[in-house]
Every structure is written in C-alpha cells, then in structure tokens.
C-alpha cells in the first residue's frame, strides 16, 4: 500500500554543510527546483558546496516522496552503475530456483533452506565462504557467509583480512601504515536480517544479494567484490523464524540484547563482528507502518556516536538508496520514531562499538513477501555499491576515527549533544567535565557482578587494567556520590579512556547518558555499573598508575541453588506478549544464569493446590488475562495456598494479580512520570534479610505504577528528591511523585507471605544488580515468620478493599503505549488519538497530561499497526515530554 504524499514544493532549500555532520550548516544557502539540472549542480559546486543536502519533502518522478537530506556529489563519468545494464550470471553457480525449487521473494525461506542454499553457493563458487557464528537457544546454527574476491574469502585470505582490518582499527597504527592498508584492503560491509523472527524479508533479500555477488559477472557485482567483502548473516533469530515470533526461544527481543549479550545468538554474532569489524552494518526489519524506512534517524542521537559514521550515512549510503527509490517511485521516510540513542540495538552498537555506519531498514510487514524482499534488496545493493565505490575513503576515515577517539580519551573529552534531524530544542547538554579514567575497586560482595562487567568490556576489545599498587585519585567521582580524594587498593580495575574504544567505554560506564531530547524510542538509561550495582567512578586527573593488563575473565558458571532450597514454581499469565517475554526472561535466569530447578505451573496446578511448590513466582503480564484464566476457583485456591504457608512473589502484572486475588494489600496508582526506562536508586531496609548483600541498588523504572505498602512492610523505597540516597540516570521527569513510596513490599498472609515489586527486577536480563534481590526473595529466609503480626480480619478486609478499588482504577490497557505532553498540547494529542481510532485513558497532574493507549496483546512499537506513525506525526506537530513504545 502507498501512503498519500504531500505535493513537492516548487523550490527545495539546500543547505551547505561542513564535512563533520549533516546538522551543522554553514552560512550560505542556495535554492534550486526540485529536479535540479547538471548545470545547477555544477553551479552549486562552483559556489563552494562540497556536498549539497536536500532538506524537506521532495521526491523524484511524478510521485512526491518525503526524502531525507540528500547528498548530491558530482563525480566523474562512470560507465558502471549499481542498477544500470542487464546482469549477467555464471551458469555454474546454481540459482535459488535450482537449489530450492523457487525464486527468492516468491515465498519465505525456512532456516533449513537458507542453510542449504548457502552451502550450495559455497560449493559452486570460490567467492563464497560459509560458516556458523554460534547456535540459538534451541541449538539451531547461525549460518553466515562471506562473499568477495576468491583470494580474500579463502581460509588463509580471511585470516589475513581479519588481522589486517584489526590493525587498521588500532590507533597505534601510523597514518602512513593506515593509508597503505586502506589502499590494499577491502571494506567490510555487513548485512543482517531477521533479528525479529516474524520479520522475514531481510533474510530473503540478503540471500538474494549473496547469490548475485556469487554468480553475477557484470561490472556492478564485480565492483562490490573487488572493493569489499560482504558478511551476510541472513537469519539472526532462527528460533523466532521457525516459530513465527518476534522473540527468541527465551522470549528475548534480540534487538535489545546487543550490549548485554545475554543470549547465545547475540554473543555469537558479536564475536564474529569482532573478527571482521564492519564499516557498514545493515539490519533489515519489518514494521507496522506503511512504506519503507532508512536513515537518517530522528533525534535524539547519543552524544558519543562517532562523527564520521553519520557523515557516511547522510552523505553516502542514504543518498544512494534515495536515488534508486526515487527512480523507482518507492515511497519511504526518515526520522521518527527511529532514533540512534540507546546503545542496545544492532545499529547503535555497531556504530559506537565499531565505528560503523549502523543502519536500520524497516519495511511494512503487511506487504507481500515479493515486495518486502525486493525493496530490502534494492536498499542493500545500493548501499553495498556505494560503500565499495568509495572504499578507500571509508577505510581511511575509519582508521582516523579510531585515532580521534583515542586522542579524545587522552584529553578526557566527551562529545557534546546536538540536534541533527528534527529536534526542536535541546533538552540536556553533556556536562562540562573531563573523564580520563574509570575505576572499580575489588569488592568480594559483588565479585560476580564485577567479573561480568570486566568480561563485557574485554569482549568488546576494551583494554582493562588492574592496579599493581594502591593509587590515590584526587578527584574520584563515585556513582551516585560526591567527588573527593580516595585511595584505591591494589587489585582495583582501571579502564583508561585513551584507547580506540573511548566512545564505547563512555557509553557503557557513564552515570548520566545526557539525553538531547525528553523522548527516546526505548529506554533512556543503560549504564552497566548501575545495572550491575557495582561500585566505581571516574576521574579527570592525569594519572600514571602502576598496573598490568587484567587477565581475561572466563564465562561465568551458573551459581546453583543453595542447599535445602525451596521448590520454585513459575506461572506465566496467558494472553499477552509481555507475559511470555517476562516469563521467558525468568526461564533464562533460572536455566542459564543461576542454574536452578523450577517447575512451570499451570492453572490446573494452582486449582489443585500447588503440590510440591514452596514459592510461586508470577512475573509481568496482563492481569485481567491472569484473573480470567484462574477464575473464581483458581483465585480461591491460590489465596488458600498462601494462607497455608506458601510464598507468593510477583512483579508488575504479577503484583496486580496478587492484589486481585486478595493476597496483597499493596495500593497501586497510575504514575504521571515521563521516565521511559530510567535507573533510580532505592533505599533498602538493612534489617530485612531480603536486603542481604545489597547496598541501595539501582532499579529500572519504566513509568511503573506508584505503590504504597498497605499492611505490608517496605523493604525498599524510592528516596525523595534532595535525599542523599536519591540519584537517577536517564530521563526521570516527574519521578518526584515516587518520593518515599514502596519499590518492594513484604507482607504476612496467614501462615504464608506475599512479596511484591513495583518494578521488574530482571528487566530484559540486564539488571543483574536487582537479580540478587530477586534471589533473596526466592531463596532467603522468611522475615515475617518470626514476627507476630496482629491484624484483625476487619482491618485486613478494609485494607483489601482499598487495594482492590485502587487496582480497578488502573487503566485496563495492558502493556500500554504511553504519551506524556504538556497540558497545552493535550487537545491536539487527544484529537490525533481519536483520529487514529485509539482506545486510551487520559489523566492530568500539574504540568503533565498522560495518555495511555490500550495494547493488551503487548505488541512492540514495530509490531503495532499505528504506534510508530502516531509517534512520528505527533513529534512533527508538538514536542512531547515523553513517548514510550513497548
């Protein structure tokens, strides 16, 4: 389907840009008709334009198409072009039809068929090398192929390439050596598809590219092979593809797992990427919105994104795609809702971690497989041809970018924030401070978490050192604390910033991410030390510590359950994706991280009285689906089990279920915050055994409900603003309303107890700091057993009535899409939601109006039929305080 387009204005405004970033205009401007002539473009060049960039809504042909800033680089006449002429094929290389019995794009390939076809190409053509990057959760191989010149993709050739490209990545390589390597090496260009299992076409398109590079003999294919090697990872999520689900077998969204590497699929491809680091990484997706998306991305952009990568996207790759899509009159768009902020995605991790042009492509999932495959193929081929045609500049600038990063680290310089696409006003600037070092004292109480942090850094080629002698740091800035002098003991870890991974180090170890806007496509905080609850901090001082390179940290073994551990049951509420995602992350935690036994629990088990279960864990999910599934009989049985001595543990939807069943008197109220994934430090009650080994951890807060304890005891609470323990990271607008409210409540219920969280202690498997808190809740001693709590039946009935009334007042929206605006923008927002036919609830508190949009199935922003379009249109008309798409 083709969305309606506004007519192109008669004149398009061209801004002359400097060579650094698209968004830094120089003083001159020129105006040309939308369809410029060669004379006009030459005139622009003679006027001093290095690259002219089109701003606004202008398209080629008779159909007006919204285009990005479009580079017009006039070069010499070239007889070859990406899509000109008729391709010629080597008949010795079998086609998809010959191998599979159908043409690529006529129907979706299976994982097995993809592997079969890739293996056939490796047999037929010496231009193709095929391997396995790892295995999925369900043990399916992650097939990859590398295609290029025969000499470069042989086993010895690939060893040489890996060694040489990593040498070019080393800032200690001299300028002359770098130039020589850039002249002799091919660019390394990556194609990734199907990271979401039900977004199939990226895989099929990348297989078509692979075949054409193996079989075609014409100049376009030859140029790509001569000047690049292309790494093709067609199916990043084989389990999801087989099941037809977005997520993998553990329910993880693999495009939110890139920095944490909790899943084997992510870990395998990142190890391959370390071996063949890219200058371009394409991640092909599908979405609910119409048309096709490719960068430039919307604001915000994370401040440590290397400048050169955005120059490549805006001046080289995006214009190449735009030109072909304009020629073929294919509608497309740029910008909202897709940003380049949170360092958790394939595009942002490849950009910040490897200095690549990380590019997400999105095609409407409702189109036919033929159209989806074709448009992804065109965007991929245009990008590869552009990169191969300019490979020496790419490689030269890639090396220079590593050198610049090291030099910034030596000076302690952090990149500033800016607005680069459609942002109207800068929300937050990067603090005026220097960071030359990060330090992490050895802490035996956090040894596992600290080891995890060091391992993550080392496996992204960050140089991590250990102090050989005590070191006095005069200006140590601890996380969540005041600056001061401190003497660090020998054995402390030291991460110097003067290395090629400077941008990555800052992205992973910062305390504040410094958001350029008050909106973010996903979470706004991801600092690894805070997620792990590891003590440490930074320094700007010029120091020369006595230190040695830290030994590589091996993979952490599961810790196993304590002796005499209670028997754990896991209940997944039916009816929504959020239920399966949350329960899946718990299964991963139990099986792969902790190595503990558990029993999946059904409604029938609950009705039968949960035989053999001591502790029941109910994670997030759609509470009404859970209550309906249990029915009156199941709800009564669950309450009776707790009163007889069972321990119920719930969070988010699981907390709501506890209130609905009558085993918790916690009072839940809708929040009015604009905090889409902020880290907030909570204060623990040190007297509670649930706080064992915990020191005021940081929790991931995602606009969750405000919780009061009812008759329960507060084990962890949110400090008030101004309290010495109050600290936040990320967008935390309005979190003052959480002041002194409960984050974790323990409540005696008859002979048993319920323990409920207002947040997710196992958020995406990232929050290993609060995983320990969940461990204490599941396996620790029962703090309420030894305490006589005298509550009359009348008092309890009254407390349950208050809690139940509050629960019923919460919006029945499931995993809601949440929009927060100023009250002045509420009328426009409301009218837009009504026009989209959205079911929503609206509430206002002081300076914020909150709209929660029903999403009971728990669809992601990409899966939802209109969420992305709504976010984009709204951002064009107002400046929302927050837009959260699940």
From TrEMBL:
GO molecular function: metallocarboxypeptidase activity; zinc ion binding
Alphabetical list of SUPFAM superfamilies matching this protein: Class I glutamine amidotransferase-like, Zn-dependent exopeptidases
An example Gene Ontology biological process: proteolysis
Top-level lineage group: Bacteria
Residue span(s) of domain Peptidase M14: 107-364
Membership in a protein family: Belongs to the peptidase M14 family.
Protein name: Peptidase M14 domain-containing protein
Species, as recorded: Acidovorax carolinensis
